[in-house]
Amino acid sequence: TDVNGNASIAQTSIQVNRVPKPVVGLTYAPPAPAPGTTVTFTVSSTAATGDSIRNNHLDFGDETFVDLGSGGSAAHVYAAAGMFTAIVTTTTANGASGSASNGVVVK
């Protein structure tokens, strides 16, 4: 309101475009590895149309990890028996991220 009692209202419209998350999957083989056995992890990641995969970060669950870039596989050796949760986090060029996990029983 101004000194003469006149009031005005300003409105602004803001459009927020949500960036779709990538679809992420994680598998491994062999299914029940022994300590010292090479385990092969395969990451499948698909970005939305018009976007691209920037990085697949794979955490093996035993305090080690690898950045795969846009690639999709890695080999890892678990030194000891136990239950480990492998997690892949995928980031796209447009800043979206998604993840997948898989329990690995080493016996």
Textual characterization of the structure:
- By secondary structure, the protein is mainly beta.
- It contains no helices and seven strands.
- It has strands spanning 23-29, 38-46, 53-59, 65-67, 73-77, 82-92, 97-106.
- The strands form two sheets. The chain has a four-stranded antiparallel beta sheet with strand order 4-3-6-7, with no helix packed on it.
- A hairpin with a 5-residue loop joins strand 3 and strand 4.
Nearest-angstrom radius of gyration?
A: 23 Å
* Helix percent band: under 10%
Poorly predicted runs of 5 or more residues: none
Helical stretch count?
A: 0
Order of helices and strands: EEEEEEE
The largest pleated sheet is described as: 4 strands, antiparallel
Q: What percentage of amino acids are in beta strands? A: over 45%
Helices and strands: which structural class? mainly beta
End-to-end span in angstroms?
75 Å
Strand order in space, largest sheet: 4-3-6-7
Overall morphology: elongated
Number of strands: 7
Mean pLDDT: 93
Features:
single chain; 107 residues; mainly beta; 4-stranded antiparallel beta sheet; 7 strands; 0% helix; 49% strand; elongated
Brief characterization of the structure:
This protein is mainly β. The protein contains no helices and 7 strands. The chain has strands at residues 23-29, 38-46, 53-59, 65-67, 73-77, 82-92, 97-106.
Secondary structure elements and pairings:
Blueprint lengths: L22 E7 L8 E9 L6 E7 L5 E3 L5 E5 L4 E11 L4 E10 L1
Antiparallel strand pairs: 1-2, 2-5, 3-4, 3-6, 6-7
